[in-house]
Design goal:
Protein name: Coproporphyrinogen III oxidase
Number of helices: 4
Order of helices and strands: HHEEEHEH
Distance between the termini: 44 Å
Number of domains: 1
Strand order of the largest sheet: 1-4
Bound molecules: iron/sulfur cluster
Number of strands: 4
InterPro entries: Coproporphyrinogen-III_oxidase, rSAM_sf
Structural class: alpha/beta
Radius of gyration: 18 Å
Keywords: Oxidoreductase
Helix content: 25-40%
Organism: Spirosoma flavum
Length: about 120
């Protein structure tokens, strides 16, 4: 047990970056390489179990003092529709890069506070 504590008692990247920051390599990064990785990972998942989709909904009405998340504090629910429009536009961009129609096996909503969205806007997903 003590060796496990020593092994993992080190600073690490936050779980919100994929791939985690220590694995970023700006010297070999290119849009073409990213598209190749996307299409390869998509094809493997889509033809087996289907893909898992994560949607980040960054809005919260108040700030928790311990928060380290990527969030926007606001009570202005007017931000919802433009954000949903942007998400749908991004989804279209992804779909245009994919070789076949996605089979969505899992949908994960995170934030922020996913329940920030008004019921009418939640139906857009
Ligand atoms: S993202 Fe979560 S932890 Fe951060 S302010 Fe919103 S509800 Fe609180």
């Amino acid at each position: 047990m003590n060796s496990l504590i020593q092994k993992y008692n080190i600073p690490g990247p936050r779980y919100t970056s994929y791939p985690t920051v220590p694995f970023w390599d700006e010297t070999t990064f290119s849009e073409a390489a990213w598209i190749r990785h996307l299409q390869r990972a998509f094809t493997i998942s889509n033809t087996t179990n289907g893909i898992s989709l994560y949607i980040h909904l960054p809005y919260c009405e108040s700030l928790c003092t311990f928060c380290g998340c990527n969030k926007r504090i606001t009570r202005n629910h007017g931000v919802e529709v433009p954000y949903i429009d942007a998400l749908l536009a991004e989804w279209t961009l992804y779909c245009n890069l994919l070789p076949e129609k996605p089979r969505i096996a899992e949908l994960h909503l995170g934030g922020g506070t996913p329940s920030f969205l008004l019921p009418n806007n939640s139906n857009d997903f």
